[in-house]
Each structure stands twice: as C-alpha cells, then as structure tokens.
Amino acid sequence: xxxxxxxxxxxxxxxxxxxxxxxxxxxxxxxxxxxxxxxxxxxxxxxxxxxxxxxxxxxxxxxxxxxxxxxxxxxxxxxxxxxxxxxxxxxxxxxxxxxxxxxxxxxxxxxxxxxxxxxxxxxxxxxxxxxxxxxxxxxxxxxxxxxxxxxxxxxxxxxxxxxxxxxxxxxxxxxxxxxxxxxxxxxxxxx
Length: 191
Known about the structure:
Order of helices and strands: HEHEEEEEEEEEEEEH
Shape: globular
CATH class: Mainly Beta
Helix content: 10-25%
C-alpha cells in the first residue's frame, strides 16, 4: 500500500468518525410503539415495583446513551425480590454527546412511581413500552394515593391490525392498581 493509499484510508476513517459523532448528537425521531393494555404491561413485565427514584447517571452502552436510574423498591408485586433496582432509559448526556429518544419516560430524583420493568437477555432492565409502563404515584387533596400515566403522544400501533391508534391517560387509586396486578397474575398472567 502506498502513501496515497494510507492517506485515503486515514481520511475515510476520520470521515466515518466525524459522521458517527454527528449522528450521535442528533435527536432520534418519534418512536413507533405497539400499544400495550394494562394487562399487557402486567403480563409481559419481568418485574413490577413501586419505587422511589434515588439517583441517576448517563453512560454509553455500545453506540447508545442510556440514563441509569437507581430505584429504591418500596413494594414489589412481580419478579425477584430486591431492595433496589437499576433501570435504564434510552437517551441522556455522556462524554460530551447527547441523545434524545422520543417516548422515553422522564424520571425525577425523589419522585415515587410504579414501574413495569422488563429485563432482556443482555441484563438491561428497562421500563416496558417506554412511557406506557410508568405510572407516577401522587397524593390527592383528599389523601388518596393514585397511580397516573398520561396518554402518550407517540405513534402507537394496534397489535392486531398494525393501524395507528391513540392512547388514553390512565388514573387508578394505587390500591386498585395493586389489586388489578394481583388478579391478572393469579389468572395466569405471569411469564
């Protein structure tokens, strides 16, 4: 290989590196998700926890940036018992790069939520269906504890027809959500 060939290879590598760097900085377009019913998120989850967000950090995992949240488990309704769990959400800032994933749930340190989690073969634990598997826990003026999930604005497809469908907000008293989880799992909804 001559000097000109080495320069061409070096320029090609630099160009690829610059292109990859530029792509990592771009926001990712809107997500297309399969619409999941409440029973779907219950049955397809590998763990269901009520927890408090303790802390977070972002890091690369391959070409993607994830924000990892440390969650204190207050109650566990499905999965192996744990005092804390680490949950990965796509997107974040790491090593001078930022990635944004439309539809990724936003978690806030100190907040309480119910999380429907799924752990894949690679060991990464995520919220199932992105924001579809995350309910904020709030207290009403009357003292009721409720689990609330706003409707997602992301494109959702009906799992049977593959046609676009809209999503609706869900709000249940926490005790009702817990009863629904217990009933669904008792009816054979555990995988």
